[in-house]
Amino acid sequence: MYDRQALIDLVRSRALKFGDFTLASGRKATYYLDGKQVTLDAAGARLIGEGLLDLMASRGLPDAVGGMSIGADPIAAAIVTIAGVRGLELRGFMVRKEPKGHGTKQYVEGPVSPGQQVVIVEDVVTTGGSSLQAIERVEAFGLKVVGVLAVIDRMEGGAGAFAAKGYPFESLLTIRDFGIAPPAV
After folding, report:
1. Rounded to an integer, what is the distance from CA 25 to the centroid of its chain?
2. Rounded CA gap, 61 and 124, in Å?
3. How many CA atoms lie within 13 A of 100 on its CB side?
4. Which of 59, 89, 105, 109 has the most CB atoms lying inside 10 A of its own CB?
């Protein structure tokens, strides 16, 4: 069972850092959320898998879940594992930053087929650029993206970017859960 407060506590103790940082989007920030400190932790993976699976199940489960490697990989694995424990049919996939140099030379890896419905996952959303790139690649593969889910929304434009392209977006947490006010975007 998903325990939201336990996830907040874990993020606060392991992943939230204060200082001067440059984000993947290129923006400067006074705090950093190192999602891998939670997604690669046994308790964190369980909480994230349960919470995100519950969000997906409330809309109707897609065929598969995944996102841009490497950040989305442990999240997709956690969700698929919890789905298996619950006896639910769900597959995972990974989106490579560069196509595989041999074999199929694909961007998308995993047991998915064109036409299937998928949800894109990410640990921390800022502008949404990483997930939008993943969406572009999975749609080129032939998958239908039915939504985007994140562990934490920094509230810096990602939700708006997804909405502008017609993708529903939800997150388990936002920066407000840590007493941080979103910047004026």
Report:
1. 16
2. 22
3. 11
4. 109
- Supply 66's token pair: 């995944």
Of 134, 173, 164, 183, residue with least CA distance to 7: 173
Cα 13 from Cα 5, distance rounded (Å): 12
User: Do 159 and 182 contact (CB within 8 A), yes or no?
Assistant: no
pLDDT in tens, 54-89: 999 998 999 999 999 999 999 999 999 999 999 999
pLDDT of 77-133, one tens digit each? 999 999 999 999 999 999 998 877 766 678 999 999 999 999 999 999 999 999 999
Cα–Cα distance for residue pair 88/82, rounded to 1 Å: 9
Strand partners, 115: none
Q: Which of 183, 125, 177, 184 is nearest to 154 (CA)?
A: 125
